[in-house]
Amino acid sequence: MTSPFDLTGKVALVTGANTGIGQGIAVALAAAGADIAAAGRSAPVETQKAIEALGRRFVSIQADFGSTEPVARVVEEAVVALGGIDILVNNAGIIRRADSINFSEDDWDAVMNTNLKTVFFLTQAVAKVMLASGGGKVINIASLLSFQGGIRVPSYTASKSGLAGLTKILANEWAAKGINVNAIAPGYFETSNTEALRADQARNKSILERIPAGRWGQPGDIGGAAVFLASSASDYVHGVTLPVDGGWLAR
Ligand code: NAP
């Protein structure tokens, strides 16, 4: 019997797969059988090596998601190179930290454009491909700040709370059409996104004290949830934001 988690023959488009959480997810999807199109602004050299070593097809697509400009081209390049898109992982994202009282319009727009606006229009473009081929799986990379307020990150919190809402509305519209739209909310993961937090000893200590698992997440901790949401094992799961947070939200 085939495993319900098997992704053999599926094509996944993963944004920001050169490093961190996106890399962890791309490698996990490939290990479950998927071919990978990695779209982003830095060359995904390590990711390519890891995925080709697993015997999967891999294509790298250069794109800056700070605007919607590359969206149509990215989708076309992925479809031409790998024959379709069955799974979309909206992972590329940025964070800007400053007190809300002084927060700049630039820091607002940069984060909202990358984390929310481009995600919506990329998803819209990929959904057209999925609808034409009978369905697919969309996985948005949300955050604990899809549930909580955070501090000194107003545009990030707005974007990730917005992304949880977007996950629900798209699930409402597309669930009956064969597309599952869900999100993963990573807790505190050791990536470049959280370098500043880990460098601040007091902040690092208080974060660790609150995580029931007692450690930061590693990129390899996120892959299982992504494989689940990308596979037929989750066919009746729609519109959820699944925390992978070492228990943070339970505390
Ligand atoms: P990361 O190591 O900084 O990775 C961010 C990824 O997004 C990189 O591949 C980056 O490319 C890409 N990216 C950023 N802006 C881009 C743009 N304009 N165009 C194309 N690619 C762009 O951080 P990470 O922690 O793995 O973050 C991945 C996702 O997880 C983000 O959405 C983040 O908000 C979310 N997240 C992270 C944590 C955590 O604890 N680390 C927690 C919750 C949610 P470059 O390498 O070229 O910059």
Task: Briefly say what this structure is.
The protein is of the alpha/beta class. It has helices at residues 20-31, 45-53, 71-82, 105-133, 154-174, 195-199, 201-210, 223-230, and strands spanning 11-15, 35-40, 58-62, 87-90, 136-141, 179-186, 241-244.
CATH class: Alpha Beta
CATH architecture: 3-Layer(aba) Sandwich
Oligomer: single chain
The distinct bound ligands, ions and cofactors come out as: NADP nicotinamide-adenine-dinucleotide phosphate
Task: List how many beta strands DSSP finds.
Answer: 7
Strand content: 15-25%
Give the C-alpha Rg.
Answer: 17 Å
Strand order across the biggest sheet? 3-2-1-4-5-6-7
State the order of secondary-structure elements, H for helix, E for strand. Answer: EHEHEHEHEHEHHHE
What can be said about the biggest beta sheet? 7 strands, parallel
Q: On the 0-100 scale, what is the average pLDDT? A: 97
Shape: globular
Could you name the ranges where pLDDT drops below 50 across 5 or more consecutive residues? none
Write down the CATH topology: Rossmann fold
Query: How many separate domains?
Result: 1
Q: Assign the CATH superfamily.
A: NAD(P)-binding Rossmann-like Domain
Structural class: alpha/beta
Residue share in helix: 40-55%
Quickly count the helices.
Answer: 8
Characterization of the model:
The mean pLDDT is 97. The chain is built from eight helices and seven strands. The radius of gyration is 17 Å and the shape is globular. Helices cover 42% and strands 15% of the residues. By secondary structure, the chain is α/β, with parallel strands linked by helices. The N and C termini lie far apart (39 Å). Helix 1 links the parallel strand 1 (11-15) and strand 2. Helix 1 (20-31) crosses helix 8 and helix 4 (105-133) runs parallel beside helix 5 (154-174). It has a single domain (11-192, 219-243), classed as NAD(P)-binding Rossmann-like Domain (Rossmann fold, 3-Layer(aba) Sandwich). A seven-stranded parallel β-sheet has the order 3-2-1-4-5-6-7, with helices on both faces. Bound molecules: NADP nicotinamide-adenine-dinucleotide phosphate. Residues 16, 18-22, 40-42, 63-66, 91-94, 114, 141, 143, 186, 188-189, 191-194 line the site of NADP nicotinamide-adenine-dinucleotide phosphate.
